[in-house]
Amino acid sequence: MPLYNVESKSGHDLYQLIDGRYQIIRKGRFSDILLGHEYILVKEYIADFLLCNEVKGIRFEPAIIYDKTSAQEWHDYCVMLFDCTFNASMISMLDHAGLKAYCMDSRYLFVTPDLKILLDTTNFKLQFSRGLSRFG
After folding, report:
1. How many beta carbons lie within 10 A of that of residue 127, not counting itself?
2. Mean pLDDT over residues 74-89, rounded?
3. Is the dihedral of CA 77, 82, 123, 51 positive or negative?
4. What are residue 10's phi and psi, to 5 degrees?
5. What is the DSSP letter of 10?
6. pLDDT, tens only, 6-44
7. Please, what's the b/e burial string for 16-33 (b: 16 or more CB within 10 A of its CB; e: otherwise)?
8. Is the separation of the CB atoms in 73 and 66 below 8 Å?
């Protein structure tokens, strides 16, 4: 069975500042997951869920999202860090069994079929596409 790409629609575009915060550079909306160039941020409750279920290949660090126009900060996200990153040509070489997560091209989140099934049982606002189907 293939891996699944976890998608996010209409989230903010962010840029990581030198102090580690993520500045909003294009406003969208706060979604359960924010994906962009060189970052994947998830709400703290998703990080807690993944840790409690012993998902392999990931760890988390606190993240701060900053809006320069209002000087507001949000502290309810975590940056998702990966033991394994890959590119599209390597997807078939990854272990697709068990509860695992991977990062493709430093910006796309992929999960195993078992992890997708587990995530489908939650109320998290996540969307999935099969394999590389959304990449053309």
Report:
1. 13
2. 94
3. negative
4. 60, 25
5. S
6. 987 777 899 999 999 999 999 888 899 999 989 999 999
7. eeeeebbbbeeeeeebbb
8. yes
Whole-angstrom CA distances from 97 to 4, 70, 81, 91, 126 are 12, 45, 20, 13, 21
Cα gap 100→58, rounded to integer Å = 8
Please, what is the Cα angle at 76 between 13 and 9, to 5 degrees? 35
Give residues with Cβ within 8 angstroms of 43, minimum separation 6.
Answer: 32, 33, 76, 77, 78
The CA distances from residue 122 to 61, 77, 115, 116, 119, in Å, are 22, 18, 11, 10, 5
List, in sequence order, every beta strand (DSSP E) within the chain.
Answer: 4-7, 13-16, 22-26, 33-36, 39-43, 58-67, 72-82, 85-86, 101-104, 108-111, 127-130
CA distance 37 to 101: 18
